[in-house]
Amino acid sequence: MSEYETRPTAGREQAHGATGTDADPRTAGVAQGQDNGAQVSTGKEAAGAQEAAIPELVIISGMSGAGRSTAAKCLEDLGWFVVDNLPPALIPTMVELGARSQGNVARIAVVVDVRGRRFFDNLRESLADLDARGVTRRIVFLESSDDALVRRFESVRRPHPLQGDGRIVDGIAAERELLRELRGDADLVIDTSSLNVHELRAKMDAQFAGEEEPELRATVMSFGFKYGLPVDADLVVDMRFLPNPHWVPELRPFTGLNEEVSAYVLNQPGAKEFLDRYTELLQMIAAGYRREGKRYVTVAVGCTGGKHRSVAMSERLAARLVAEGVETVVVHRDMGRE
Fold first, then answer.
1. Is residue 203 over pLDDT 60?
2. Concatenated DSSP letters for 91-109?
3. N or C: the chain end with fewer CB closer than 10 Å?
4. How far apart (Å, rounded) are the C-alpha atoms in residues 210 and 312?
5. Is the dihedral of CA 24, 111, 86, 98 positive or negative?
6. Which long-range contacts (CB under 8 A, 24 or more apart) does 315-323 make?
7. 181-208: string of b/e by CB count within 10 Å (b at 16+)?
8. If 0-12 CB within 10 Å is exposed, 13-18 middle and 19+ buried, where does residue 104 land?
9. pLDDT at residue 39 greater than cutoff 50
10. Which of 116, 113, 109 is nearest to 74 (CA)?
11. Nearest CA among 78, 10, 1 for reference residue 224
């Protein structure tokens, strides 16, 4: 089942930083046989034994139809060992098997969804167990609007896994409630409402393709308030305190990517002062995120339509973050929608 409709993109996305690939997961092997109550080894289990390398772990979850399969396939293409629909109680066992593979399985991605809802209560216990054993793990949550999810299920003519005898929207509501706590614990939330398959893959590549894990990755997203707030935003700033280039006839047809529009926005009273002070604020927030182990942040920069002020300021803010050593992706969500 394809979890996406492919539709034309309305903006652009660019990534800053080198990317790379790892070994093909098809060549990786895991230890075979029964594993009854196995625990992740964090040291030498016997004299002369080599220390087991604990695999890195990513848990992919989120709304049905929001793109979990696409995200999982992207990680598989990047060399991750991917397991779909694994009961949460078995995640520590999967990590243990990877640790026994003598380095052949260094990175594991597990897809957890409501098809395993009978086991879902075990997820928090499994995560606490992994944290206690020093396993590096991250949660990626795929989000989407109700309207987008309904369209996707109707396009493939399949029921929502939780709708039962009700409607698709009933299943979506039940799933949101079930996943509410997990979404709050997620390290990375990706809203796929307006993304096609290729754009989601670009986002996953930007976050996971690097050979070296950066301290912090940022997404700076311009948007228009009239189209709604981005649901995956960690921080939201409002550029509507600046004069709108829309009311300047010679600037109206262009976007914030245009040099004249950008200069007009940045030369307004308070614009440069905002950029300087907000950059300082982000430095302080970024330091706190690093201390707390948060690796991803999405900064949403809004104006009325997401065409002029927010685009120009997003570009400048992203450049400041890159200069500070933060790997940054720029997304212009609503540019071109008018």
1. yes
2. HHHHHHHHHTTTTS--EEE
3. N
4. 27
5. positive
6. 315/256, 315/257, 315/262, 316/262, 316/266, 316/275, 317/220, 317/275, 317/278, 317/279, 317/282, 318/16, 318/218, 318/220, 320/275, 320/279, 321/218, 321/220, 321/279, 321/282, 322/16
7. ebbeebbbbbbbbbbbbebbbbbbbbbb
8. middle
9. no
10. 109
11. 10
The pLDDT > 70 percentage for the chain reads 80
Instruction: Give the pLDDT confidence of 151-197 residue by residue, as tens digits.
Output: 999 888 888 888 888 898 999 998 898 888 888 889 899 999 988 88
Question: How large is the average pLDDT for residues 24-33?
Answer: 38
- The bridge status of strand 56-62 relative to strand 81-84 is unpaired
Beta bridge partners of 224: 303
Measured distance CA(151)–CA(165) in Å, rounded: 19
Report whether 332 contacts 253 (CB < 8 A): no
Tokens of 111: 């897809």
Range with lowest mean pLDDT among 81-95, 212-226, 303-317: 212-226
| Model confidence pLDDT, tens digit, residues 57-79 | 999 999 999 999 999 998 988 88
pTM of the model: 0.57
| Alpha-carbon gap, residue 329 to 155, rounded angstroms | 31
Average pLDDT of the chain is: 81
**Which one, of 328, 223, 226, 312, lies nearest residue 275 by Cα?**
312
CA angle 243, 248, 254 (to 5 degrees): 100
Q: Where are the beta strands (DSSP E) in 101-146?
A: 107-111, 137-143
Of residues 143 and 103, the one with the higher pLDDT is 143
What residues pair up with 221 in beta bridges, in sequence order?
Answer: 300, 331
In 3D, which of 118, 175, 98 has the Cα closest to residue 142?
175
